[in-house]
Amino acid sequence: MPAHILVGTQWGDEGKGKATDLLADDVQYVVRYQGGNNAGHTIIVGDRTLKLHLVPSGVMYPHVTPVIGDGVVIDPGVLLEELDDLVDQGLDVSKLKISGNAHLIMPYHRELDRVTERFLGRQKLGTTKRGIGPTYADKAARVGLRVQDLYDMKIFRQKLDTVLKEKNAVLSRVYNRLPMKAADIETEYAVYAERLRPYIADTMALLHDALDRGETVLLEGAQGTLLDLDHGTYPFVTSSNPVAGGALTGSGLGPRHVERVIGITKAYVTRVGSGPFPTELRDETGERMTEVGQEYGTTTGRRRRVGWFDAVLARYAARVNGLTEHFLTKLDVLSAFSTLRVCHAYRYDDEEYEHFPPHQSIFHHAEPVYSELPGWGDDITQVTEYHLLPKEAQAYVDHLEELSGVPIRYVSVGPARSQTLERH
Ligand code: IMP
What we know:
ten-stranded mixed beta sheet, alpha/beta, binds inosinic acid, four-stranded mixed beta sheet
């Protein structure tokens, strides 16, 4: 009756889609548990590339039931567009299940995300402007609208009228925007309600029944550990809990169901948006890394910031998620460098920190302490067995494993499913 959690250990974009793809053969359910259409998963199967934002990557596999869990925020118009696109590409989306407890992203959430970012000026977070933060804020303030509200339009309108009064006051008086009309929103969302009706389910019960039958559930995180609202680099975070604990609250499963927690870890580090990043490379090496790794966002197309591997963060992610193993991605990108650096500690004010510092100011000003390792130079994208990798590449992986304290079980050397080497 196992549940497996798949979680990004850095600032997102670690290659979780690829890991799900590899593990999907042996699972019956793939569940998204947090976030919304701020995420972007690229999945390559054979000659087909799919870019997903909200639909769980399990949709690719006829034997898998994809589930959007309670902890997700849903922009129904965007979800329907994504489903239409998938159908146009020949995929069957009819098995998708959506929790009635998931919160709805409303037009005023998107607008508030845009105007508050503008308002923050240089202090902006660099959000994806999809309305994620404002939707989770309303959820916490208990004025959010949920998917289930779509199926009682009287309640929907009552809740909408109440919340819109305050939103319109803020939009017009603080941000000088036009107020929104409840009737327009109701008409738009009533259409979504009808189209989404076949997918709505009691997803929590569904997953428990599946586990009772001995089936396997894969809980697929979006974003990453350091973007976690509680455990990430606050305030430069997303507004949900990507960490393994969030997989439980976001799906309705309990800790005893979890057998594996797989950390998806890039062989270097990237980050989109604002916020501290100790090993960031702002030089030619960084430019090369961005280009070779094609580090541009799936959702916004933004250029990702890049840097050397940071073992302090890897150790932190191992602890906060209770990782059982790592899935190391994009090792092939490092073939482009003759010398590799790995950060094993931070220095601040004459002190060395092997663990994530307890105060944000230390992290903001942390100087990475590096060890250097020789690169391997050779193209490794065609290597089919781990032991056939150049010895320098194996030494690099060994070093990361030793520093992070968690076994590295898979190593990915290219985007295709076949370009994954199992290590132990
Ligand atoms: P939000 O999630 O749109 O509110 O954005 C908050 C922060 O999380 C910003 O720095 C975004 O760039 C970042 N972020 C959100 N989703 C992703 C993702 O899927 N990958 C990487 N960064 C993300």
